[in-house]
Input
Amino acid sequence: MAETAATDASSHGVDSRRGFLTILTGAASAVAAGTIVWPLIDALNPDAQSEASARMIVDVADIAENTAKTAWWGGLPVYIRKLTAKQIADAQAVMTSALPDPAAFTERVPAAYQNYVVVVGLNTGTPCALEGNAPADPRGDYDGWLCPCDGSQYDPLGRVRSGPAKKNLAIPRFKFINAAQIQFG
Amino acid sequence: MRRFFAPLLAIGLATAGTAQAEDTLSPLHFQSQGAFGSIDKAAAQRGFLVYQTVCAACHAANALHYRDLEALGLTPDQAAGIAQGVKLADGSTATLDSPFKDPAMPASAFGGALPPDLSSIVAQREHGTRYVYALLTGYTTVPDGVTMLPGHFYNAAFPGGQIAMPPPLRDNAVTYADGTAATQQQQAADVAEFLTWAADPNLSTRHQIGLRAVIFFVFLSVVAIVSKRKIWRESV
Amino acid sequence: MTTELKQSWAGERLPIIGGLCTCLFAPVFKPGSKYFDTLLGLIAITLAFLTFSGAVLAVYYDPWHAFASVQFIDRNVHNGWLVHAYHATGTTALFGLVYLYLFRAMVTRGYRAPGELVWGLGVKLLAVLLLVGWLGFVLTGGAASYWSLFSASNGVLALSGAAGAIGNWFFGGPAGGNALARLVVFHAVLALSALVVVGVLFSARGAVAPKAERGRGVAFFPYYLSQYLAALAVFALIFSVLAFFAPHFGQPRANALPADPLTLPVAVALPWYLLPLAGVAGALPGIWGGILGVVGALAVLAALPWLDRSGPSDAKGGLYSFLTWALALDVLGLGLSCSPLLTLLLTLWYFFHFLVLTPVVTAMEAK
Output
């Protein structure tokens, strides 16, 4: 007479006399359970709308030189500025060792499109939206951006030059998908 | 029982050697119909072209985003390009909105008949795919004894027969990229397939997963029942 | 009852684990029960499944833009359409199981002593689930849902006194986003209470289930687990056919349209499982007719153990069995009937069956 069930509560293993059929049933049931449950978990991954916003595409071809466009991404204002040739030359000529937060020219601009600067437009000192996107805005002494809250000044590459702020403006994750558009994320 | 429509049989599409499209008009059938139907992506793409050229002038499809068109085989760039063609700032995340800025305008302009949103129209009408086709090809001459309301047209497929929408389709109003002849019937069939996709974008996946699930559970049922009998036999 | 199971480490410290091990491994069950006995377990599993899929849906559901949020789930959430199908088909499957469970109990006369409480809890489960199902239907934000909510929430405005106060408290005013925001919470809370009712049902059933003879008992694992698995596999097969090939089974087509206060409905449009009760509610005139119809229909069902005048050991008579099947046809007819006269006749037969036929025929056959 075969044993019906383990009388010892701690042994939960399948009796080896059960054989292939039971193991097959158990395995197939486990596969079924996993396949059924997976969509419930996957549904809580970011939905298509969130993913599209996370990989937002922005047109940059229409930005005039020496002006910046604001794009909202991830809840942050991102400033995309087109530099003039003079600003590029001046920025390359700056001695990085003299800066409060040293950063080379090539670290601040994308390699293939060096006349564009993409930075998060929040002051790194007292959090505050920066001014200086339009040429007529107050930009401080370095022709970059100025913080109206604590007076920190940045250069056109977003490097901090003076003021209570100590760190350069943050650069978000982005890439140029073609000459006219950048994609975040 | 299939319902065959007389006009479509007259179309010589079956003889068009240059048409890339599979002949879906004689007899009329849709790849999306039936328990194992799937969306005909080529037809749906052609249908989207017709929608964008003809229907979008009055009808919105608010639940659809331009990026959803990637499911029909368009690349993200193409979808973004289409959105840009409609001059939208949001790019391909934008929805296929109503062309009317003032939501009350179309009803007042069209005598109270608001052009319905087409996102789910196929689900909202009985036998939706065939209904859309029948509606678009159903404009006929007014039968004797019927008095038309002002501004209305006679359509055999519309409940009550009197529809406020003028016949929207004309032969060759659009040019298909794959060379299919753009007759009215072809456009109607393609739009019907596109709107079927729009109402139920997951139809193909659902049927595919469903077939696999049914096969698997038949197998699992057999194995489980046999296993149960074996355990019960051995226990008593 | 005592067992000779050795307690595990956890079992010695947490009585509930010890109890669980006893349930699973102690050889105390009578062998040979029918597949139909797994129905309650399937109901519990389906309810749990609905709870999880409902929780995922609740993450994305927006009561202030109900229809649009459901469309969002279907189109933009990964596998959202599938979670939606799980929940919708799960509801159909659940009511199919509950109706089948109750009908089987009626046919086998399992509601007789000592099974009165099991039966009463089963009817209570049906009542709670009908309310939860109606709330879920209303939450979809479709045209049929809107008008169903409208007639209920505006109907209570016509009630006076305590009934009106309770009605207004429940709906929070006439139909609109405000009503849906609270109804989604009621839907979730009542669904969880249904889980509690199922738990109590299991306990009550355990008390009346036939005990195994000494030495001849079997344990749940693997004996009854294999039966549950087989039943579950067949259930999953039926569920898959419905979920993937007929995801809108039993739902009114009008619900594919968004709620529109400017378009009046042609007829009552409810999910299939609410149709019989709606028939009873509509048969008697006025709001009070509807309330009394619904409450009365469920009350006579719950009172069945006392209306049946045969003792527990009396044989089942053929005439009453026939009448039970006739009642099933009557309920089916109530769901399908479009004619007010037919609905009234079927409603009257329903009450006649319970209040007159049951006592008379069962007493007659008990002799």
Remarks:
- Chain C touches chain A at residues 4-8, 11, 21-22, 25, 27, 52-53, 56, 59-60, 72, 75-80, 82-83, 86, 218-223, 226, 229, 233, 236 (CB under 8 Å).
- The mean pLDDT of chain C is 90.
